[in-house]
Amino acid sequence: MIDYPTLKIIWWLLVGVLLVGFAIMDGHDMGVGTLLPFVGRGDDERRVVINTVGPHWDGNQVWFITGGGAIFAAWPLVYATAFSGFYWAMLAVLWALFFRPVGFDYRSKIHDPRWRSTWDWGLFVGGAVPPLIFGVAFGNLLQGVPFGFDDYLISSYTGSFWQLLNPFALLAGVVSSAMITMQGGTYLAHRTEGAIQQRAVRGTVGAALLMVVSFAGAGLWLKFGGIEGFVITSTIDPAALPDPLSKTVARHAGAWWMNYDRQPLLWLLPALGVAGALAAAALAVARRTLGAFVASSLAVLGVIGTAGGAMFPFVMPSSTHPNASLTVWDSVSSHLTLGLMFWATVLFMPLIVFYTSWAYRVMRGKVTVAHIRANEHTAY
């Protein structure tokens, strides 16, 4: 059996892998949905766009579901506290996601321009809103979330929905939205040709540049904008049972940069985010679209990894009761639970990756207007 402290670190890494996998796989579906009304200039072109992701989107949605399930099982206190504090934000995500299955299934059922246009904009909402809200949530995590625990570890959230929409959090939302749009643009450029591909490339370049500027702006804001980070000032026993109230936490400016000062190699993560986005834009312009998608995926890894590297070991800091902040060490499940989940992941994760790879290989190739017109009665 793997020891408890090691399992805590492993599950921090695995949750990060699931978040990155969600942003890369389901992210390119959402990015395509965001670009749909703008790169498709007619019904045939929009059907081309939809058919690039139509066969895969529901499978990629599993990354989102698995990520939520992993947080529930590995970090139950984080799950309970986050879904209480971000309740209305999570509902907004779910309401937006409702447009995706019905949009994909119903959009082409009726030959009516108004009907189809309505569902096209519904798919846009389902693709654009979740990344924005997830980015806003990350922005709030970096500032701290107003929550606390009573003696029975029942959490209470003292903020409001509108407090979540603060300027720094909205900037983080821009980073997330631009990142996911870039991811979708590179995938769309790879799967299409002609005028649709040209518009997808322009969308990719615009989103990549916006992501780089906003990502750098958010980093400078954290460094010089007066946002205080969190640091544990008491002794931590990594093998101790979960108890978020057993530590002392202080806030001070520059705390989110301490890990980067201690481990300079972590600077490779923000560098990867910037370089990957710029490379994705350049490769897309050069029509090296597969390379652009890989570069965009590496940028996603860099951006999410940057946030994780800065916050470690914090998972959900508390702005009102810093000592109640949830960390990798004190918000996890039992040793037995983490161990069983780890071996289940070792068994099933390769199968999921293999099946996904096989499905994309079988359905590879360009989707064209000619193909759409020759297959008028396809599902999408």
Structure description:
By secondary structure, the chain is mainly alpha-helical. It has one domain (4-374). It contains 14 helices and six strands. The strands form three sheets. The chain has a two-stranded antiparallel sheet with strand order 1-2. The protein has a two-stranded antiparallel sheet with strand order 3-4. Helix 6 packs antiparallel against helix 7, helix 8 (167-191) crosses helix 11 and helix 11 (268-285) packs antiparallel against helix 12 (289-311).
**What number is the mean pLDDT?**
91
Largest sheet descriptor: 2 strands, antiparallel
> What is the overall number of helices?
14
Low-confidence stretches: none
Q: For the largest sheet, list the strands in their spatial order.
A: 1-2
Structural class category:
mainly alpha
- Radius of gyration using CA atoms only: 21 Å
Outline type: globular
For this structure, the quaternary state is single chain
Topology:
Blueprint: H1 4-39, H2 43-53, H3 57-74, H4 76-85, H5 87-97, H6 99-106, H7 113-143, E1 147-149, E2 155-157, H8 167-191, H9 194-224, E3 228-232, E4 249-253, H10 258-262, H11 268-285, H12 289-311, E5 314-316, E6 326-327, H13 335-362, H14 369-374
Antiparallel strand pairs: 1-2, 3-4, 5-6
Can you summarize this structure?
The protein is mainly alpha-helical and 380 residues long.
From the structure above, extract its key features.
mainly alpha, two-stranded antiparallel sheet, 6% strand, globular, 6 strands, 380 residues, single chain
